[in-house]
Specification:
Layout lengths: L1 H54 L12 H6 L3 H12 L3 H14 L4
Helix pairs in contact: 3-4
Length: 109
């Protein structure tokens, strides 16, 4: 009887392990898809910006305070937000939206 119980527990442990493995693979696949879609969106946006520039059909974007773009390129989004806020005096939400828009338009994140 003990042998049957141990054998049954082995199958159950294998089934639980397999289920966890499948769930982890599905989750990682979703993350990869989201990153891929974000890169594709940024690429499409850059191409659209080039077309709009070529056609001359583009609204003038607000001036970006000195240092913001450099911080974004260096990967320091929080520092870019601080520089933007110090230069403009804008509220936190406005700063966050402006810096994130600038980063997206430049394909930086």
């Amino acid at each position: 009887m003990s042998f049957v119980f141990n054998q049954g527990m082995g199958w159950m442990a294998a089934l639980v392990s397999l289920t966890i493995l499948v769930l982890l693979l599905v989750r990682e696949s979703g993350r990869r898809d989201a990153r891929h879609q974000a890169r594709q969106s940024a690429a499409v946006e850059r191409k659209l910006n080039l077309i709009m520039d070529h056609l001359g059909n583009r609204k003038r974007e607000p001036d970006v305070p000195a240092g913001v773009q450099e911080e974004l390129i260096a990967g320091r989004k929080i520092k870019a937000m601080k520089v933007y806020r110090d230069a403009t005096g804008a509220g936190l939400r406005q700063v966050k939206d402006a810096v994130e828009l600038l980063a997206r338009r430049q394909g930086l994140g």
